[in-house]
Amino acid sequence: MTATTAHLTRADYEAIARELDAIRDEVAGDLGERDAAYIHRIIRLQRGLEIAGRAMLLASSLPPAWIAGTATLAFAKILENMEIGHNVMHGQWDWMRDSKIHSTTWEWDNVSPAEQWKHSHNFVHHTFTNILGKDNDVGYGILRVTPEQEWHWANIPQPVYNTLLAMFFEYGVALHDLELNKILEGTNDPEETAAKLRAIGRKIRRQWGKDYLAFPLLSGPQFLATLGANFTANVTRNVWAHMVIFCGHFPGDIEVFEEGRLEDETKGEWYVRQLLGSANISGGPFLHLMTGNLSHQIEHHLFPDLPSNRYAEIAPRVRALCEKYDLPYHTGSLAKQVGSTWKKIFRYALPGPRGVVPSPSPKAPAEHPVAA
């Protein structure tokens, strides 16, 4: 229990779980042809953009072709990672029973092996969202993003760390499942770590072979220009993905929790933890598409396996539920969320304030009235 949820009773949590379960069941029961058509359309768009971008880069020595080809390729890579890869690997489209668009078969255009990402993200992060010591996404192991994290002198240059992390975000994601803290503590399984490193190495060779060798060679005398274009497209995709993900997890009044909260946590309490630990980005359809609909991070954390194209229609109902139970619904423009996130990164690079995460309190009596 936190100050934000002190007014909620056991009956409130049970009611919240029932209402959110009902939303999920309703949407899941309504999935059909229009949803399948959506993901097929996005995949065709992404592949068309990638072909167009790479075709333009065959003439990459010409500045207009370089700029247009790089921008188009970056757009294609963002779509593949955000709206397709991330969501397919979450199992959002498994209901279609299409082996080509399935969480067990999809390998994304990224140096992070899909299997490792699914463990660190789908299981660890979404199960233990914002639990200090359990959710490695809180600061990604190198950033202090909340006063509840202990300050160390190494945090001082974290704005620089974060800039580099943004530029090379796919590599940070690739290393995430290694759990570097365990390696440094000597508590990891050396054989498992070695196997993961080999998988990462294979994926890096595959990605580098494609972007930094095969396609530049195809452009002949434009080899260096095409290589630079592919590098730029990858960095652009990395910076965008980093920005979207950080804006969904670190801005404003996003809350973190101590591990004791997990003890006997009910489904309603899990739902509320997702609400308090996530933030949305307000905007139009194009922004939502480019973020992989992670601009609806709250809805994604509540329903990670529902197709992303449904989050926009779910969002007003979730917001109404938050108002009903007097819970915050964190949202804001992209500029606001980016500014808020970077403000935290600069502020918590310095010592203090030292926050205290309250321990779970006994459940309040069920007779307390539901918030209006």
TrEMBL record:
Protein name stated in the entry: Fatty acid desaturase family protein
Source taxon at top rank: Bacteria
A Pfam short name: FA_desaturase
PANTHER family recorded: DELTA(5) FATTY ACID DESATURASE C-RELATED, FATTY ACID DESATURASE 2
Limits of the Fatty acid desaturase domain: 65-331
Organism for this UniProt entry: Actinomadura yumaensis
InterPro entries membership: FA_desaturase_dom, Fatty_acid_desaturase
